[in-house]
Amino acid sequence: MKSIPDPRIGTFRRSERLEVLLKELNGLLATCQEEVGRTYVKPRLPILLLMGAPHSGTTLFMQWLAESGQWAYPSNTISRFYAAPYIGARVQQILIENDIGGEISDFKKTSPFTSVLGKTTGALAPHEFWYFWRRFFPLYPEADVVPTEALAGVDVEKLNRELATLEAALEKPLALKAMLLNWHIPFLDTAFDKVLFVNMKRDPSFVVQSMLEGRKRYFGTEDLWYSFKPPEYAWLKDRPPVEQVAGQIHFIRQATDAGMAQVAPARAWTLQYEDFCRDPAAAWAVLAEKMAGLGQVLSGDYAGPRSFDAANTIRATPARWEEIRAAMRKYV
After folding, report:
1. d(CA 187, CA 258)
2. Best label site of 64, 99, 110, 226, fewest CB within 10 Å?
C-alpha cells in the first residue's frame, strides 16, 4: 500500500527511520515489561490526569509539576519506551539522572517552561506520551474517540500494571497528559482507584488564534487539520479554517466539561490558565488540598515561580481577530 506523504514541515516532520527503530525496540522490550508487571497490580499513589483543549496551557502546567520535583511523569526519554515504560525509566536513571562522572554529559536535561506547539526540549522534559495511550485505546481514524465496543475491551488491568511499574521506578505520584481521551473521562474515572482530573481552560479566542498559528508552523498553511479531532470533525473539516478551529475547540471543551461533571468533586479540578499564570502559588495550594484528599501529601512550601507571562496577546490583525470572535459566537 502506498504511504501517505507527511504534510508536516521542517522539524515537525516525522522521522521514518526513528519510527522503525522505536517499533523494533518496543517490540523487543514488551515481553520484559510484561515480566516486570507481574509483580504489580495498580498504582499506590494518586494519578493526576491533565485534560482540556490543546493550546490551553497544559504543557506549561506539566513543566510546572516537573520542576517541583514532586511528580513522576513521562519524559522525552521515557516516551521512546512507550511499550516498556518501566525500562524507559530505568534507562533514564542510568544514562541521565545518575551520570555521576559526566561520561554522557551531552544530554540536555530540560529547558524549563519553554515549548513549541506542546513539544518540550530536553531528555527530562515532560512528553505527551500519546503512543502509550494509543496502545490501550483504539481511536476512530476520523475522530479521537474510542468506539463503544472497543472501549469495553480496553485492558484496564494491564494499563494499571504498567502505570504502577512507572510509579515504582520513579517513586513519586504520576502526572500525565490525557487530553487524547477527553471524550472518555467517566471511563478513566472508573479505571483508576485514586485519580485527580485537572481540566485546563483558557480564553477560547486566544486558543483559536494559537491553533491557527500552530497550523501555519506545523504545515505551512492554515488549511490542514491540526491536533485532536472531535466527532464533529466529519462536517467541521468542510468549513473555512477559522470556523473549523472555533468548532474544534468548542466541541472539545463541551465534551471535557460533560465528562468532568460526572466525576466526584474530590477527584476533579477545573483550572483557568489565566488564573494559573497570575498566581501559581494559589494553584499549588488547591492542588495540595486535592492531593491530600486522595491521601497524598505534597511536601514543603511552594517554591516555584511567582507568576508566568500569560500568552494572551492579540497577534492577529483586527479583521482576523473579529473573524475569530464571530466564529466563536456561532457555537455559544
Report:
1. 13
2. 99
